From TrEMBL:
Keywords: Iron, Metal-binding, Oxidoreductase, Vitamin C. Belongs to the iron/ascorbate-dependent oxidoreductase family. SUPFAM superfamilies: Clavaminate synthase-like (SSF51197). It comes from Prunus mume. The lineage of its organism: Eukaryota, Viridiplantae, Streptophyta, Embryophyta, Tracheophyta. The gene is LOC103335907. This is Protein DMR6-LIKE OXYGENASE 2-like. Residues 210-310 form the Fe2OG dioxygenase domain. Residues 1-21 are annotated as: Disordered. Pfam families: 2OG-FeII_Oxy, DIOX_N. Residues 1-10 have a biased composition (Polar residues).
Amino acid sequence: MAPTVTSMEASNGHEVPKGASIKTLADSASFTFVPSEYTYTKNPNEQGDANDPEHSIPIIDFALLTSGSPDQRAKVIQELRRACEEWGFFQVTNHGVPENLMQSMIDACHRFFDLPEEEKKEFQTRNLLDPIKCGTSFNIDIEKVHLWRDFLKVIAHPEFNSLYKPAGYSEVSLEFSKKTREVATEILKGISESLGLEADYIAKAMNWDRGLQILAANYYPACPQPDKAIGLPPHTDHGLVTLLIQNEMGGLEVKHKDQWVLVNAAPGAFVVNIGDQMQILTNDKYKSIWHRAVVNNKATRISIAVPHGPSLDTPALPIPELLEREGQAPKYIGMTYEKFMELQASPAGVKKPCLDHLRVKHN
């Protein structure tokens, strides 16, 4: 059932329906400004030069990662280790997923967001793990400022779910989710080896065969005052690894050495980042990095993030072999992935980073 829609008065006298999509708002010619409910003020620590040419996220050649040459693989594993330690983000090129499939997935999601609002209402839900859900912002019931963003989230693994509209979405999303999961699986093997573990160690420990994969499409329409709104505020991802593609409009920024760096992805590349579950597993060796989505006043940006996590009933805990090797005590307590996701979506997860809730408190 669709959420109940009520109206609230905007600061200029226009009514902004509560729960209305940002697309509806952006398409309205009467709105030439950002309504007060969407006005986002950056904290001092969110400022920074996001276009510093000296900063660029590392590039990992997937063809070398899957190479039969031990020397080539060993070299790229070390590059992967440095990328995880120093950035938490990297690009993956030569991954074998056809660019036309990636573009078809973006186009299919665009067609979904272009559907009439009445047709999308059947997919609106507030249940966190419903197989298919769409909506706007993040959580309009608990957030102080609404986000300049609509979303569509579809669970693609361990069971594949899809939409019957728009036409062609189901076929494209099935192929895209399969190919993306294959890439994520190889990246997970590489990360495992970069930690000095067996290639399948993390996959086995996290029950990867039953792991959660979500196709999360984000729609950020052009904003009349982009400096006064935000697509997604600074956050970390909840899973193990996330793969992302976007249309020609950039907007992803990564926090690196206290500066916000705009990610300029190579054509056809996946942007990959490690998530909170990986930070727990590695006891902070590989960190889940803060990132955000900014908006522009030129054109719509569409991104498709594909987070991959453990099975829902699996708790992440620091890997014993790493603790022993580093002579460390575990920094985190255990929590199942499902409970962790629920925490992230709760008021407690908004007030304080989820990882802080799980940190071992030392006297």
